[in-house]
Amino acid sequence: MSSSLRIAIVSVFALGLLLYIFRFAWMPSKYEYEWNLGLHPEGQQPYDLGIFYDLLEASSDSFGENLSPLVENSLGSGENSVYFYAGGSAYHDSTDRFYLKKFMEEGGTVCIITSNYYSSILNDFMSLNYNSRVINDSLFEVKFINGSGETYPFRYEYLGKPSITGLPVFPEEIFRVDSALEFDYRFISGFQTTFNALEIRYGKGKLLYHINPIFFTNKFMVDSVGFAHAKEFMGHVEGKKIIYDKFAPFYPNRKESQTSPLKFLFESKSLTLAWYGVLAGIILFLVFRGKRKQREIPLTPLIKNTSIEYARALGTLYHDKKKAEYLAEEIMLQFHAYNRRRYHIHPGKPGKSNAKELSAKSGVSEEKINAIYKAELSSRYNPSAPIQEIIPLYILVKEYYKLAK
């Protein structure tokens, strides 16, 4: 094939691609708003949390953001302080939960508004065996227990029309009866004879947990009902210094492009065309004139592992209890944290296997991963299991770390 023919084929292909992109950019959007449950703290769509986030910032004497994993003194003193998170899902590993409980012991308030409670600090207070519940309806009438006596009706809509959705509620058997933690709890609100918010007194502080963040979204906060509901719930928060955690979500609830500076360009058809024209010029330059250069990548020393003593102390503590379930729980939490940070894979519900997805990304066979979950069932969810039952699970997880790519 001659050079002229190759250039002609590439040019025709590039021109066709540009025409398709331009046509797509000129197509008007069918809907004015995005009706998915985004729950973005600074978003302006109906089911984002922008208004609630702004009210939090305006009402606090001191407002800060946490953008990294929790470490020693990252939350400061718990006195008159509030750790706050609102969003679709929250993840707290064993280290995060240690510092949050220390924060509460010092008098701090931990306030979490999220639809997920499997992998958060609430997991330290929950029973190992419980059944999650979901209420399906379009109208939810929320009422606070021992509160003002007002009923707050929330009607779910999609594309501007009433629709049915499922909202999670707390099961009655959520708290573990054999916990070594000392705490008092009470439910503070609910609907349809169920509960969706609770308060746990721990140390000098407390944990507030609301499982329906949809009630705090922009769609409801613009109305007096949503504003009054949020005000009554926030009446349970003690402290004027707020630390808002933006690192806790399992996954970003929205694509980066939806909040990036490019959004300003895409709101104008002329700027959009100019942007794609620049991209087309760069592509053509790279095809016909560009030269690829690769610089040397310096070698960086390996980070020294400083967590060995912590792991040894934790293992000794659990081993002394002579029960496999506590140590199995910690091994699986570290296993899920490893997969989350490395492969961005959600662990799913406790005891459920995500072996197929995990095998595709880690390179470990699906059979070996299923063996890990099977060993978890026999040790973690069997109250009578002896401490020796933890050995097969430990060996399988250790082999997984060696084989994972």
Write the layout of secondary structure elements.
Blueprint: H1 3-26, H2 50-59, E1 62-66, E2 81-87, H3 94-105, E3 109-114, E4 133-137, E5 139-144, E6 151-155, E7 157-158, E8 161-162, E9 165-169, E10 184-190, E11 197-202, E12 205-210, H4 218-221, H5 224-234, E13 241-245, H6 262-266, H7 269-288, H8 308-320, H9 324-343, H10 355-362, H11 366-380, H12 390-403
What does this protein structure show overall?
This protein has 3 domains: 1-30; 50-245, Rossmann fold, CATH 3.40.50; 308-403, no CATH class. It is globular, with a radius of gyration of 26 Å. The chain has 12 helices and 13 strands. With 405 residues, it is of the alpha/beta class. The two termini are 41 Å apart. Strand 5 (139-144) and strand 6 (151-155) form a beta hairpin. It has helices at 3-26, 50-59, 94-105, 218-221, 224-234, 262-266, 269-288, 308-320, 324-343, 355-362, 366-380, 390-403, and strands spanning 62-66, 81-87, 109-114, 133-137, 139-144, 151-155, 157-158, 161-162, 165-169, 184-190, 197-202, 205-210, 241-245. The protein has a 9-stranded mixed beta sheet, with helices on both faces.
